[in-house]
Amino acid sequence: MSASRLILKQPTGWFAAGREFAHALTLLSDGAFKLYVHVCLKANRHTGRLNATVDELARAMARAPTVVATNLDELETRSVCRVTGNDGSQLALEIHDRFWPYQKQQIPGCAPEPEVEFIQKVRGLFLAPACVHASFSAADEKIAVSLHRRGVSLEQITQAILLGCARKYVAMLNAGVPTDRSSSAGWNARSRTPITSLEYFAAVIEEVRESAIPESYWEPLRAKVIRMEQQWLQSHAEKT
């Protein structure tokens, strides 16, 4: 006997509460989770965005404005929601992709927010190399936000990832070089471990920003990294 078909009492206005909600439930305090739910229900389904003041949110939540402000800080700290314009006036809130169940769409005629576009580009740069085995986590997104707010350019990040990957491929390809047998096992394990976090490149980004590396250095390095990546992929495939 087949199960009866579920019928919605209200066919419109519902929200897809799935694993994103389940994740937020385990991460947030009761007050912050309630605010997250409210923002989800009121946000534009195509963008995950909502404009509101703290007072408006406080009235809707039947909470004191100071409590709502604290909950907003938690949502931003936990990388659940991006909050901009937090100066007591109109706020722009956007639920991060990890906590938004719908595929976001770009509204025609509306340019993406610079910070959002920056994060998306950093994500693509970070995940592109074969030596990176990771998802773009909430911690990675926080690092990207910090880089944007500090004025780090995409060119500097591109160069840092290129330099960091070059060093990683050298270590991976040369794993087993040390002659000290007491330390070689640990060295090999560390050298062969893929990159799993944007944090790996943090020091390299600062190195690139502080050094005066000529432009002529980067294109030959890029070609070298491509060759090393292909060599590592081939050797890795032979071992599996």
Task: Report on this structure.
This protein has ten helices and three strands; from the N terminus they run H-H-E-H-H-E-E-H-H-H-H-H-H. With 240 residues, the chain is mainly α. It has two domains: 81 residues, Winged helix-like DNA-binding domain superfamily/Winged helix DNA-binding domain (Arc Repressor Mutant, subunit A), CATH 1.10.10.10; 126 residues, no CATH class. Strands 1-3-2 form a three-stranded antiparallel β-sheet. A hairpin with a 6-residue loop joins strand 2 and strand 3. Helix 5 packs across helix 6, helix 5 runs parallel beside helix 7 and helix 7 packs across helix 9. About 5% of the residues have low confidence.
How many discrete domains?
Answer: 2
Secondary-structure element string: HHEHHEEHHHHHH
N- to C-terminal distance: 47 Å
Oligomer: single chain
Rounded radius of gyration (Å): 23 Å
Structural class designation: mainly alpha
Give the helix level as a range of percent: 55-70%
Characterize the overall form: elongated
Helix segment tally = 10
Number of separate strands: 3
Mean pLDDT comes to: 83
Main β-sheet, spatial strand arrangement: 1-3-2
Q: What kind of sheet is the major sheet?
A: 3 strands, antiparallel
Give unreliable regions as ranges.
Answer: 176-188
